[in-house]
Design brief:
By secondary structure, the chain is α/β, with parallel strands linked by helices. It has three domains: 137 residues, NusB-like (N-utilizing Substance Protein B Homolog, Chain A), CATH 1.10.940.10; 54 residues, 2-Layer Sandwich (Alpha-Beta Plaits), CATH 3.30.70.1170; 191 residues, Vaccinia Virus protein VP39 (Rossmann fold), CATH 3.40.50.150. Helix content is 47%, strand content 15%. The chain is built from 19 helices and twelve strands. The strands form two sheets. Strands 5, 6, 7, 8, 9, 10, 11 and 12 form an eight-stranded mixed beta sheet that branches. A four-stranded antiparallel beta sheet has the order 2-3-1-4, covered by helices on one side. It is globular, with a radius of gyration of 23 Å. It starts with 5 loop residues before the first helix and ends with a strand. The mean pLDDT is 97.
Length: 422
């Protein structure tokens, strides 16, 4: 198979999707493939699309096969091919032919006839199967049933819009570095480069279409960064001012760390427990030309990293289900289990209880997640305030004490709550 062929892209996508079915993170699965440049864009498109459509593809396979397929990579190949058959109906013959070719390099080619038969059977029964899929919640809304039930209960009037946004391709938003260039000047440069976009916040520019960062003039020099508009709310909400001692407790990959430093000259410590991801914090800071104290540590283990001097501001962007950013990581929807939410909530409580000890009286902690679920958001904050008599909830969005952003055409889903220490 030629590296630039559809067959090779289907083969590579099958391996990545198969790894996800086996429980692996999609980003890690793709990185492990070490894809040639000619194959990477098509492979990523197939893998991401098939996982966004997983609920539908899984529905089809359950009706096209007498028993579940044990081989994850062949299952991944069929999911990628079925997705392409639905989204590229003008190319059905090419898709089937190339999927069969790809199958010869998987599982020693023993599933070649099965792949050919399943895909051709789908084409024969397409009208019947698509009508049935449209009547099934998981196949129609492309989210696990338990996830849909939680969204329906929490957002009875808006759950369909949230789910629809979660199935879409994510927007590309830029954050202009005010230390390097004015937003208007950067927008003028975009227009000259033929890149369309609009300003949606002081330093946030939403592009009409995603582009490679190589096309962004000044990216390498730190004039601009890629950061979702929802994530860009964290630094202004923390309200860190020049001279303050600030902690970004779960900092990787460093987007919010960099934003904090762009807005004020603060003494900032950035922590993360993942050594590989900590390197990305360093890379981000090096690119924008600003500095912080970066440490690899579990923020709950105070003895491992804290020198005893309190912080005036703490950003607690805690690990969570990532239910608000699932369109960027479509594997999340299918890797998460209902019981995982309680596990995340327990970890979050441990983190903010530990961090509270390091916050100076009169200081502020911003609690943040990219979740849509109450157990990780408003329930978590309410329980924290009940445990800590010295905690005071501050307005976060207008007069509201918390801010739940929902995914839409402009931004991902985030939650913020500001807590002051009396």
């Amino acid at each position: 198979m030629a590296p630039d062929s559809l067959a090779y892209a289907l083969y590579s996508a099958a391996k990545a999707i198969g790894a996800v079915i086996g429980g692996r993170n999609l980003d890690n699965a793709l990185a492990a493939l070490e894809l040639p440049a000619a194959t990477r864009p098509a492979t990523m498109d197939l893998a991401f699309s098939a996982l966004r459509q997983y609920g539908r593809g899984d529905f089809f396979l359950a009706r096209l096969m007498a028993r579940p397929l044990a081989d994850h990579e062949i299952r991944g190949l069929l999911l990628a091919a079925l997705c392409r058959l639905e989204t590229r109906p003008q190319d059905v013959h090419t898709t089937v032919d190339q999927a069969v070719t790809a199958s010869t390099s998987l599982a020693h080619g023993k599933y070649k006839a099965l792949v050919n038969g399943v895909l051709r059977n789908f084409l024969r029964r397409r009208d019947e199967l698509t009508a049935a899929a449209d009547g099934d919640d998981v196949a129609r809304w492309l989210h696990p049933r338990w996830w849909l039930e939680k969204l329906r209960a929490a957002y009875p009037a808006d759950w369909q819009a949230i789910v629809t946004a979660g199935n879409a391709h994510p927007p590309m938003c830029l954050r202009v570095n005010p230390r390097r260039i004015a937003t208007a000047d950067f927008c003028a440069g975009l227009a000259q480069a033929g890149i369309a976009g609009r300003v949606i916040d002081d330093a946030a520019i939403l592009l009409d279409k995603p582009v490679s960062v190589e096309r962004l003039s000044g990216f390498a020099e730190g004039r601009v960064s890629v950061q979702d508009r929802g994530a860009q709310q964290a630094a202004p909400l923390l309200d860190a001012r020049t001279g303050m001692r600030v902690l970004d407790a779960c900092a990787a990959p460093g987007g919010k760390t960099a934003h904090l430093l762009e807005l004020a000259d603060v003494d900032l410590t950035a922590l993360d427990s993942d050594t590989t991801r900590v390197r990305r914090i360093d890379d981000n800071l090096r690119r924008i030309g600003l500095a912080a104290t970066v440490k690899t540590a579990d923020c709950r283990d105070l003895a491992a990293w804290w020198d005893g001097r309190p912080f005036e501001r703490i950003l607690a962007d805690v690990p969570c289900s990532a239910s608000g950013v699932a369109r960027r990581h479509p594997d999340i929807k299918w890797l998460r289990r209902p019981e995982d939410i309680a596990g995340f909530a327990a970890t979050q409580a441990e983190i903010i209880d530990a961090l509270w000890q390091t916050l100076a009286p009169g200081g502020t902690m911003l609690y943040a997640t990219c979740s849509l679920f109450a157990e990780e958001n408003e329930d978590q904050v309410a329980a924290f305030v009940a445990r800590h008599a010295d905690a005071l909830r501050l307005p976060t969005h207008g007069e509201e004490r918390e801010w739940q952003l929902r995914p839409d055409a402009d931004q991902d889903g985030f939650y913020y709550a500001r807590l002051a220490k009396r």
